[in-house]
Amino acid sequence: MTSPRRTFAIISHPDAGKTTLTEKLLVAGGAIHLAGEVKARGQNRRARSDWMKIEQQRGISVTSSVMTFERDGITFNLLDTPGHEDFSEDTYRTLTAVDSAVMVIDAAKGIEPQTRKLFEVCRLRSVPIITFVNKVDREGRPVFELLDEIADMLALDVCPMSWPIGMGGEFEGVMELATGKVSRPEGDSRTFQGKIDTGVTLSDKITEEIELAGIGYPTFDAEAYRNGDLTPVYFGSALKDFGVTDLIDALADYAPPPRPQPAEPAPVSPDEPDVTGFIFKVQANMDPNHRDRIAFMRLCSGTFKRGMKLTPSGSGKPIAVHSPILFFAQNREIADEAFPGDIIGIPNHGTLRVGDTLAEKPGVRFTGLPNFAPEILRRVILKDPTKTKQLRKALDDMAEEGVTQVFYPEIGSNWIIGVVGQLQLEVLLSRLDAEYKVAAGLEHAPFDTARWVSADEAADLKAFTDINRAAMAKDRDGNPVFLAKTAWEVGYVADRYPKVKFAATRER
Ligand code: G4P
């Protein structure tokens, strides 16, 4: 019997405390022993890679990773997502590989823009959410105001599971509402330990708050939570290590185990014996000494064993997976076996692509991994014209990783790249230079947005592309893309060609 799995991600706005919480979760799970280690190791690793200097300079985390820890017989797979809004596409894809999410909110700030965007992606896929209101050791907003904001802005039922007894200087602990047990801070000012204390006398104000909360909010309904209609809300402080184990217990008790995954011809249940999975992320050059790339696969069914042959839907040629990697607290370890819900890193030289299905028996295809229309388009200017081949390889590689998208116009030789955020442009140039020795610049493209075009009848598509040839390009996979000057133009053109479909996302 294998231990149950909980595969989840943390979503938050930058600075809400995701890194700190991750660290504390790993410590609680025994994966690391020193607080601060996640950051320290991260920085060590970063220092080795040139292009990641951007991360250091900006103090943001661009690379995602997978961390596994165990507690009370349950294996938790935590998929880290880059917090910076520029890397939303990467984050979105990671959310396709989880069964649930923890939403971290700063008690002083409430729902912030990035929290909201990420929440919408979770909603799209009915990913259930546990809310952690962080930083109660500091002055925060009134609890009712925070709860109502979550309910109103996210159109979600909220159910407080605990209640902070004061915040900031008046913080006295957190009460578990179901039992009335109070965890009181104990320890030095750096870290509190929750000490269960049933003999607390609460102030009238707090007693009244808790009474009102009991009347004003729905009781916890596990089914509604799992459907993504209700979020249980916990209060705590990641920094002071307060409420973190309650959060793990909540994940253990309520978060769903691996769920059936949408696929063609039929959804795949985790109980099916044949091994299947999909690639949600590809990362190149994690170790600059080996020009490897790692494809991250979410295992959806079957028991994976090292050396197993799997067929990727992209190439159709079976590959033997001899050195799969399980990510255990950021140490790469060779895995012998993995189970549904686990993430496996598969080293490869470019055969595996984001969106690929891998299966023991071909014929299955997972669906719903979106490719987003880029919001920024730029023309790539090569400084040394003899490097065309290297540039093409670099752009293809990065498109494959999902860092940038590349479009090859039908007319002219100026390749166009698309990104969802400004910072990716800097990453692109820096990597071109450091990894591919290609000096390049970027200039404004005469286009502002891209749409994948298709039509039921090939003739309708051809009629459209023939007339609009100057605005047509192909993506890396050869799919036709219409490059428009403005979003308005997309609407205008779409009206004139009702038989052509214009898509802002392309499913892989
Ligand atoms: P992020 O990954 O979501 O961006 O947030 P991160 O954990 O890096 O936390 C952002 C800041 O908030 C950090 O302070 C961190 O120490 C602080 N923080 C996190 N959790 C809590 C909490 O529960 N209470 C309080 N009071 N602060 C918290 P910083 O000064 O920006 O960084 P650092 O120099 O302390 O690392």
TrEMBL record:
Gene: prfC
InterPro entries: EF-G-like_DII, EFG_III/V, G_TR_CS, P-loop_NTPase, PrfC, RF3_C, RF3_dom_3_sf, Small_GTP-bd
GO CC annotations, alphabetized: cytosol
Pfam families per record: EF-G_D2 (PF22042), GTP_EFTU (PF00009), RF3_C (PF16658)
Keywords (A to Z) from UniProt: Cytoplasm, GTP-binding, Nucleotide-binding, Protein biosynthesis
Ranges of residues in domain Tr-type G: 3-259
Binding site for GTP: 12-19, 80-84, 134-137
GO biological process: regulation of translational termination
Provenance organism: Sphingomonas oligophenolica
Function in brief: Increases the formation of ribosomal termination complexes and stimulates activities of RF-1 and RF-2. It binds guanine nucleotides and has strong preference for UGA stop codons. It may interact directly with the ribosome. The stimulation of RF-1 and RF-2 is significantly reduced by GTP and GDP, but not by GMP.
Phylogenetic lineage: Bacteria, Pseudomonadati, Pseudomonadota, Alphaproteobacteria, Sphingomonadales
GO MF annotation: an example: guanosine tetraphosphate binding
Name of this protein: Peptide chain release factor 3
Gene3D superfamilies (UniProt xref): P-loop containing nucleotide triphosphate hydrolases, Peptide chain release factor 3, domain III, Translation factors
Listed NCBIfam families: prfC, PRK00741.1, small_GTP
Transcription listed as a keyword: no
UniProt similarity note: Belongs to the TRAFAC class translation factor GTPase superfamily. Classic translation factor GTPase family. PrfC subfamily.
Record localization: Cytoplasm
